[in-house]
Amino acid sequence: MLDWTKYPNFTADEFDCSHTGENEMQAEFMDKLQALRTEYGKPMVITSGYRSPEHPAERDKPIKGAHTMGKACDVFVSGEDAWLLVVLAHKHGFTGCGVKQKGSSRFIHLDTATIADGLPRPAFYSY
To answer: What is the C-alpha separation between 66 and 35, in angstroms, rounded?
Structure first.
């Protein structure tokens, strides 16, 4: 279980699976995310953190995503702030970055998955 006091800009419930309530976020990911947030210097609204393998967004995937490993989150952000977040995420060693900047649900996906996790990395993609 994580010591959430190490992450003063985040709370555990922000990362709970919206489908099951579980939370298996990994310390290595959260350490990088806190370092990123400290340098970014602005609030980061987390729209998705841990996802159970039974979560509707993960259930039918042949290879489960980084969210199911506790190594990913989605951050609600747009415009110039989105660009800054992507640049800083690269600097802080995030290996996966997904960009969705159309419509009402604009966000940046960040993860620290590796090839050993079964995901091609590094990866940069758009939704």
So the answer is: 19
Integer Cα distance of 70 and 101 in angstroms: 24
d(CA 46, CA 17): 12
Could you give the C-alpha distances from 104 to 15, 43, 82, 98, in angstroms and in order? 21, 19, 14, 16
In tens, the pLDDT along 51-83 reads 999 999 998 888 889 999 999 999 999 999 999
Q: What is the mean pLDDT of residues 97-117?
A: 94
Average pLDDT, the chain: 95
CA-to-CA distance for 7 and 110, rounded, in angstroms?
17
Q: What is the token pair recorded at 93?
A: 């060693």
Q: What is the DSSP string of 53-65?
A: TTSTTTTT-SS--
Omega before residue 53 within 30° of 0, cis: no
Instruction: Kindly give, in sequence order, each residue whose CB lies less than 8 Å from that of residue 53, ignoring residues fewer than 6 positions away.
Output: 59, 64, 68
CA distances from 22 to 28, 44, 65, 67, 120 (A): 18, 21, 16, 12, 26
> 87 - beta bridge partners?
none
